[in-house]
Amino acid sequence: MMIIEQIYTGCLAQGAYYIQSGNEAAIVDPLREVEPYIRKAKAAGAIIKYVFETHFHADFVSGHLDLAKKTGATIVYGPTAQPAFKAHVAKNNEIFKLGEISIQLLHTPGHTLESVCLLVLDEQGRQTGLFSGDTLFIGDVGRPDLAQKAAHMTQEELAGMLYNSLRNSIMPLNDDVIVYPAHGAGSACGKNMSKETTDTLGNQKKYNYALRADMTRDEFVKEVTRGLMPPPPYFPVNVRLNKEGYESVDVVLKHGKRPLSVTTFEATANETGAIILDTRSPEVFAKGYIPKSINIGIKGSFAPWVGALIADINQPILIVAEEGQTEEVVTRLARVGYDNALGYLEGGFKAWKTAGKEIDSVESVTADDVSVRTQGNILFNLMDVRKKSEYDAEHVIGALNVPLDYINEHLSEVDKHKTYFVHCAGGYRSMIFISILKARGYNRLINIAGGFKAFKESDKFELSPYVCPSTML
User: Fold this and answer.
1) The pLDDT of residue 376
2) What is the pLDDT of residue 472?
3) What's this model's pTM, rounded to 2 decimal places?
4) HEC profile for the chain?
């Protein structure tokens, strides 16, 4: 019997995979914390034989090294890969036996030069599943701009390679093959991914814009490269870590989970220049927090926002978390390579407040409150921190768009002496934005509870005509 299980991590929009046949198992694109894979195999009476990497990931640090070290599994990469550690660099179409099934490695360069897809052949040799990495997503394909520097190629040249890979290696496969991609909606590795995390290849041939049968190479290159946003700054660092190696996640967790008293926490912050990262919910953070803290809530897209907004991956970090959430915070930081967590505030914010230390807060109001306080004249006083694509799709007339993604580039547009009402879609990003600016001395920022959704539900604001985002690509 063959087992294929998708292990999906929502905050990274990442799919890792567990495959088992007989008493042998393989893991595809594992996350950095590897114990869950080891426990799963042990419970099933299997040994992990292979760790397949579809490419050198840019958006997370893989668990390949720890997993291989702890299980004796062989790490497998595609042709042209040059890892700085022991691994098997496979040939195109090389077959790997796993119990009673086979896994055929298909070299599919384009997203990166070493990118591969893994075709599962069942006990009878029938095409069953395709682990498509970042080559093919549900509704999209991998962006071809991330590997330009390493490949010494333009994004157009890489897109052309991707076109050939899809047409020559993927599209000829059987329509009933199940596609298992490395990412879903929300990942920065593509621009038009579906919320679905699996599909048949036949269905993708019908509905995925990049797999149109009559699409020319030039059309493909133009469509795939259109509308690409700059990648988060931590991507190249994660690629380097995945190629060259990194500290064991066990060591990282041990350091990050050190409890620090209020006195030690304060002294450490002053001595090291550490960022105080408050991971509580935006609503709780607003009511009271340690001055100059940055709020990135653990219950949102935590790791990608840390990667996008904390420029230095080696930045010392001190953690403020709800009770029992510290390990999760440190783990999520480690997933994107932020290994320099120095510890957490023992007793949380409550301990800080009880000690009589200075605190700060963020004023939060409803959309209707804004209308009353400004007598309906919000021109240039309303700040929308959603992505430009969200703003272009629909916004409050007169709102200034200052995307959180590019906060540093837009700071010159924000007047320190002016009061702004700040909103995103629902409140998560606006609190991140406000906390960052307040730490830099912008003290006249007021949060809009409920975000843009609240404006849509109110009858007091004029909205721009809705434009479907897909028509803007």
Assistant:
1) 52
2) 53
3) 0.92
4) CEEEEEEEEHHHCEEEEEEEECCEEEEECCCCCCHHHHHHHHHCCCEEEEEECCCCCCCCCCCHHHHHHHHCCEEEECCCCCCCCCCEECCCCCEEEECCEEEEEEECCCCCCCCEEEEEECCCCCEEEEEEECCECCCCECCCCCCHHHHCCCHHHHHHHHHHHHHHHHCCCCCCCEEEECECCCCCCCCCCCCCCCEEHHHHHHHCHHHCCCCCHHHHHHHHHCCCCCCCCCHHHHHHHHHHCCCCHHHHHHHHCCEECHHHHHHHHHHHCCEEEECCCHHHHHHCECCCCEECCCCCCHHHHHHHHCCCCCCCEEEECCCCCHHHHHHHHHHCCCCCEEEEECCHHHHHHHCCCCCECCCEECHHHHHHHCCCCCCCCEEECCCHHHHHHCCECCCEECCHHHCCCCHHHCCCCCCEEEECCCCHHHHHHHHHHHHCCCCCEEEECCHHHHHHHCCCCCECCCCCHHHHC
